[in-house]
Amino acid sequence: YVTDDPINDVETEVKEWARVKKIEIDELKKQEQFRKEFLGNISHELKTPLFAVQGYIEALQDEGLEDNEMNRSFLSKASKNIDRLSLLIKDIDAISKLESGEIQINYKKFDLSALIKEVLEQMEFKANKHNIHLIFKEKYNFPTWVYADRDKIHQVLINLVSNSIKYGKAGGTTSLKIFELHDQILVEVTDDGIGIEEKHLPRVFERFFRTDKSRSRQIGGSGLGLAIVKHILEAHQQTITVRSTEGLGSTFAFTISKAK
Ligand code: ADP
Q1: How far is CA 179 from CA 113, 132, 176, 258, in A?
Q2: Helices (H) and strands (E) in the chain, counts
Q3: Is the C-beta atom of 174 inside 6 A of ligand 1?
Q4: Ligand 1 atom nearest to CA at 220
Q5: CA distance 89 to 101
Q6: Whole-angstrom distance, CA of residue 68 vs CA of residue 1
Q7: In this entry, which stretches build a coiled coil (predicted)?
Q8: What is the pLDDT of residue 81?
């Protein structure tokens, strides 16, 4: 743009350039901070099971492998911690790929009702172990055609149902429901478990956030399940919300595009 005042023009242009650069630099600083925090979290999370394995192995060495029963118990505990490490690494890999945009969404048309039934079958063993009843109403016995990445929505459902079991109460129920919206399907996963305190609700989708650190860590999980869920849905331009009452239970609801 040209005025009668070239010096003023240059000054305006330089100011504009500086403003844009500052925004860029602030964004880079934010990303750097984010990366540092992520790495810090990761090493913290990996340390716990790793030190546990180290501890059990050292104890075995010290005991001279004489007490068979104790040895078996230490080995089984070490093995559980190694499982935890593998799970953590798998989830860290998933989330870093999702966060860097490296993951492709392979859209296709599929039957969501069939997928939900598949997930419930897969989770039945875990649910039985926790004495939790899984419900998906018979009225959904017809196909629900959606357009999304089937494997990734499978992961979303597994993570949500798995949480509803982990944080459920023995004798309780997890129920899945689907609702037709205009051009989307709304999926709800509801449990009557321990629920989430209101103050924690806005943070449950953050990576490594746990409402009760020690308890949630004992129950298992990487602390990344809901962050992965949120990223997958965002990559589909869809959303997830949560409502919950402490002591009564929680509902996680997400949307998915209907197939045309
Ligand atoms: P985690 O591996 O710890 O389960 P998630 O990312 O899946 O990690 O969940 C984050 C936290 O949110 C959990 O540690 C737990 O405190 C809380 N949470 C998730 N789902 C539920 C649920 N259905 N009921 C109660 N609390 C839940």
Answers
A1: 11, 23, 10, 11
A2: 6, 7
A3: no
A4: 2
A5: 18
A6: 85
A7: none
A8: 93
Residue 70 corresponds to which amino acid? M
167 lines ligand 1 (CB under 6 A): yes
Closest to 31 (Cα-Cα) out of 88, 92, 100: 100
Q: Across the chain, where does the E strand assignment appear?
A: 108-111, 133-136, 145-148, 173-180, 184-191, 240-245, 249-257
Locate 220 and state its tokens: 């298992």
User: Token digits for 24?
Assistant: 């860029």
* C-alpha 60 to ligand 1 mean position (Å): 34
Average of per-residue pLDDT across 85-92 = 93
- Listing DSSP states for 175-217 in one string gives EEEEEE-SSEEEEEEEE-SS---GGGGGGTTSTT--SSHHHHH
Cβ of residue 161 lying under 6 Å from some atom of ligand 1: no
105: DSSP letter = P
Is 225 close to ligand 1, i.e. is its CB under 6 Å away? yes
Q: pLDDT tens for residues 103-127?
A: 899 999 999 999 999 999 999 999 9
Query: What ipTM did this prediction achieve?
Result: 0.98
pTM, full prediction: 0.85
What's the token pair of residue 45?
A: 């999370």
Q: Which atom of ligand 1 is nearest to the CA of 217?
A: 3
| C-alpha pair distances (Å), 171 with each of 117, 191, 192, 248 | 21, 11, 10, 13
